[in-house]
Amino acid sequence: MQRSTFLKSILATTAAMLGLSAPTAQAADPLEVPFYYPVAVGGPITKVIDGYAADFNKAHPQYKVTPIYAGTYQETIVKALTANKSGKAPATSVLLSTDMFTLIDEDAIAPIDDFVKTDADKAWLKGFYPAFMANSQTGGKTWGVPFQRSTVVMYYNKEAFKEAGLDPSKAPATWKELSEAAKKLTKKDANGNVTQYGIQIPSTGFAYWMLQTLTTPNGVLLANEGGTKVTFDHPKVIEALDFWVNLTKDGVHPKGVVEWGTTPKDFMEKKAAIIVTTTGNLTNLKANAKFDFGVGQIAGNVRKGSPTGGGNFYIFKKAPKEQQQAAFEFAKWVTQPERAAQWSMDSGYVAVSAAAYDTPTLKKYGQDFPQALVARDQLPVSVAEFSTHDNQRVTKVLNDAVQAALNGTKTSAQAMKDAQKEADRILRSYK
């Protein structure tokens, strides 16, 4: 017997005597899957996302999805595209559905269709609400997977409604009803200072979205489906912005620019009786409002309706193929009906498929807390959120124009005409 064979035999015998198993090949380390998620601070949502990643990794030990909290939506897309250009693209990121054209123009993302192979995959992709797919598909391809999606809704203080002689069981259904209710709900102190505004619509961050919440019921779209043309100077757009400006002139809405982030707080502190904002604030208000509140669909004018909003999963094409596949599996896993139902309850966002609302969990939640169903019920009359090529620049032009009108530095008509001219210049090369 050769020396090495003899040693192996001795070692094997000794191991057997000591009850040790023979050495085995080490399991391969799980594949790292970087996942950029838009949240600026820690808190309940990060715990939920961390939990999803941990549960997915446990069920798929070959992968290690790692959430990276990258700031606001705007900060997250900048970081994701910077990483993409430097050759270190994330496998996936949740970014605004309206970033779709920008991500395509940057050649940053892979079509979701490339990963859809089985009948189960196809059924899953067809299961999302059509209203959410409007900001996820273009040119015959699907580019994003709906995840934290929303519509805009009205929250109203039922106690304030009772006090003002209004019916607390229903929200104002038309612009006329909304204006009249706002007048009755506005309170002043002995010195004539407003202590409670009838209505508050935020105008920082997402002013374009709030404008679209008024243009949609006024029967006009702000952009074409291809994202190459805008209609800012349309008479119905100017009329919608004027409606908003006139609320401030009537003293039933705060003057000037209103902060997005403080609007839910103002509602909870009874500084505003009605607020117009994302359904994504629902869980926060449910947990923290010290009074009974209602949720209503957006008040109509010539029609009803709201823009959709929120974020999609995107898969980055410069990430290694194995990471892309893992990202697809994660997006598919996290949007299954039971998880989509739980996510809706945890966050306040709309569950992204009808199947999620058919789960026993969400059915019971909807029965116990019917306010959670309003945003979903608004989907059939909802339109795609405003989105164009070079979306960040065009959106900034529109945001600035809305703020100029609310600040009184321009009329609604002048603000929209100037914005149209600038947007046309930016979009010239895409026509």
From TrEMBL:
One Gene Ontology cellular component annotation held by this UniProt entry: periplasmic space
Cell compartment(s), UniProt: Periplasm
Keyword Signal: yes
Annotated keywords: Signal
InterPro entries xrefs: Bact_solute-bd_prot1, SBP
CDD domains (alphabetical): PBP2_UgpB
Extent of the signal sequence: 1-27
Main location: periplasm
Coiled-coil stretches: none
Name of a matching Pfam family: SBP_bac_8
Record keyword Acetylation present: no
PANTHER family membership: ABC TRANSPORTER SUBSTRATE-BINDING PROTEIN, ARABINOSE-BINDING PROTEIN-RELATED
Family: Belongs to the bacterial solute-binding protein 1 family.
Protein name, as recorded: ABC transporter substrate-binding protein
